[in-house]
Specification:
The complex is a heterotrimer of chains A (301), B (442) and C (306). With 442 residues, chain B is α/β, with parallel strands linked by helices. Chain B contains 20 helices and 13 strands. The relative contact order of chain C is 0.15. Classes of the chains: A mainly alpha (301), B alpha/beta (442), C mainly alpha (306).
Amino acid sequence: MAKPEAGLKRAHFKDVRLPVLLLLPQLAILLFFFFIPSFRALGQAFFLSDPFGNTVHFVGFDNFAQLLQSETYHESVKVTVVFTVLQNLLTIAVALVLAFASDRVIRGRGLYKAIILLPYAIAPVIAGILWAFLFNPAVGPLAHVLHAIGFAWDPNRVGSDAMILVILAASWKHVCYDYIFLLAGLLAVPSSLLEAAAVDGAGPLKRFFSIGLPLLMPTMFFLAVMNFVYGFFEIFAIVDAVTQGGPAGATNVLVFKVYIDGFVNLDLGSSAAQSVILMIFALFMTLLQFRYVERRVSYDV
Amino acid sequence: MNLDRRSTLATLAISSALWLASAMPAAAQPVQVQWWHAMGGALGERVDELVKKFNASQQKYVVVAVNKGNYDEVINGTIAAYRAKRAPALVQIYERGFMTMLLSDATMPVQDLLDQRGYKVDWADFVKPVAGFYSYKGKLMTMPFNSSSPILWYNKAHFEKAGFAKPAETWQELEKQLYAIKQKGISACGSVLAGDYHWSLLENYSAINDLPYATKANGYQGLDTEFTYNKTSVVSQIGRIKKWIDDGVMQIAGQGLSPEQLFTSGKCSTFFASTAAHSGIEREAKIDWSATYLPWEEGKQPKNSTIGGASLWVMKGQKPAEYEAAAAFLDYLAKPETQVWWLKATGYVPLTNKAYQMAKSEGYYKDHPTREIAILQLTRGTPTANSTGFHFGNFTQTMMAQRDEFENVVAGKKTPQVAMDDAVKRGNEILRQYEKLNKGRY
Amino acid sequence: MVERAPVLDAVCHAILLVGVACVCVPLYLAFVAGSLTIGEVQQVPLPWLPGDQFVQNLRTAWTQANFGRLFLNSFIVALGITVGKIAVSLLSAFAITYFRFRFRMTAFWLIFVSLMLPIEVRISPTYESVANAALPVQWLVEKLHLSAAWNAVTGHSIDIQLSWNMVDTYPGLILPLIASASATFLFRQFFLTVPDELCEAARIDGASPMHFFWTILLPLSRSNIAALAIILFLYGWNQYLWPLLFTTDKDMATAVIGLKHLIPRADSQPAWNVAMSAALLTMLPPILVVVALQRSFVKGLVDSSK
């Protein structure tokens, strides 16, 4: 039966006062803590201002122009894209392998799942601290292993080492999220399809690649979007704990740069302009997510 | 009655209560003011003692010291509080923030504040580099509080073993010494890079060797100053540091490891760091250590070094009584007795010549000769335009850009000249922003 | 599965064991580090067996960083976010799915927009908002010249100074993190799948909307609420950027922020042992929550509109 309007129950109440009252708490909170700050953030991007707010010049799009011409900003964009893509691929790949293995295995599946799920409970900053310690070139046990093998591991001086460390920490923390969805997806594959394929002589791997994987595509697309959001925003804690954006900007992801420019460099106009650009990106990603994955809900954003 | 209506009413009630509460007149009690500072750990305890002494010395005012985190957190907290019209009376801001605070229109010049209230502070008695850094148009805008200068710490045993009485006076000679120490296998590394190397090894290097860091007398004569350190031997200094790092003579501590620890544990032979490290080193060192002046370039007549640390600013927007309290506290801080107590407890330098003389006459520096090095270095000769200090807007930002480029050199991605050219370019863009915003106000 | 493939099964077990090892080894090493003295933790390589200092290090962290208070703060913040967000979202979702009124779509879009901006991108102005939440009202008061109006009407002069400073308070920590619509959307999705017959029956019986809400809708939503509660509790407990910037009062920080301050930095002792023990302690409550309530949690993550 078609609904009269989108998102409205066919059986509904007609009242005006009550729903408005019900909406008041959320809208009030949104007004004070979302809309007003967001507009001010947007606004600040068009001004050159002293941190205390007493001297303010309107500069139009100058802050944006400067950003787009700034080499450090380009670097930051590059770093963010490289990081997000690599982290995305690594996370999905590992999660897929683990999901496939969990799908096949029946004994102990519950236990495996429970343990693999643990990093979800761990705060990103803690994951960062753990990995910073483990790979600390001076005292880290895993760094020692690398040195013993012959790698000159030094995330304090070598940019790519720092990037690898951040990617590892981020993926470690996020694999379980993708894993849960992929496993659920695999378990939901109709057994009739699999049986038919088996009868035709397809082995388990072939069944996975020809049936399971294609059916997982929508889920994987959803996860790719979620991983992008994770990589762009939730990574702040890990970068702050592990590398502080260094060395020489090798891990200076956009969301960290916003923080440094705003809070350490006290360059509020530039920080706000960067926020606006991030906002536009977040908007785009959410719209994408909402359109293609209407049925799924994002909890992390 | 609906949940929401109740909570809405409750919210209104709370707000009105808050409003009424703030409108009530204060009872006749000592005037209380807040002082936001960045001194944590042992230094924080000294601050608490200092404040206690002030509060006990009179009945009219009470200062409440609040540790708001590190210097970045204090200035951000101050900014947010100020924007919300709730700034504290006194804040401790790092020296780098001088121009930001000066042109913010949010502060009360300290010299005026105290003079207007009849306090007799001998402003001309402040040690020249200290006064030079914190003055504008001949007046002290902020009260210096914890000032330091970098010195050269060294491991006596290592130097003696290598056949040297103490570190040489010039960079060239010192380099020979450190390489010799490394070759003879006496220590794992000749030196360790301090966290604030931009201050000790670049800015102070420039001052001591009488090199201009920027045009317009390092920013004192105008906002249209431009960095010029890429045209001086700062570039070769960076090359020198890189060479030391590559040859294993200079060690980088890295995340999680304290450079000071590498020195006090006896691993590295020298450490270019603030005199304020005295308290830590005296407590931790398992080695026979000493300290001496920072080296200078061969053939140069060394000038004075410049200061680091922080100072106290008085924020606008206070009630008259609160200004009285702030003025009284600042006057207390300026007293030689207070300074002598503070320098003994912490390792920071005396701010006025009177305080310096008082400590000297007590024989303090005879008993602690290394503690005198910083103040001797600060008062060496007459400051030139290159060694008075730095008046750069957005100084933190330009410093971060310079550090970024230095890391590129260390990683081998850029040569020192290219890196400093880029650092100067980025720094100048930042300076131009500051100039644009504050045109005609300096 | 369908046929027996023992080799593949063994490989799968091996893969899963590697996965488990990747999760557990870092945690185990952290535990070892957290159980050593500060001298021992600096030695390379780290010993593979734990020492005996774990409780001692915990005690150091507890007193040094005031962890007792920080834990309490984390609990309050996490619970506040959980309860606050769920309560507010249930009401809003109910309003936009079960009522037909003129402002419905406007409200819907207003709420939807808030999904687009995570707190990281609006961090500075949020701080200003919290530092003086009444500032917008004050601005309005000034723009409308209310003081002058009052004066004109009553002849009394009045100085209206509204300020509501929530810096370093629990509401200040909690409210900005509630200000997004993710939970509202979850409940909206769920409410859309509730059979219409239930509502029709309620209407026929003459029940008021709120009665329907309390007696029918809410009990049905129980499992969704439970799953969301777990996720929100984790989210609240693990918050980092906002508490970091927002609380400068040491007594108002959360456990995660306290932990950050224990990380050895360049100018402090390399007390990784204390930091690691504190890290393990801080991750314990969320882990307990996940382990104990794993089923509803997974169900909530995956199962949104079945």
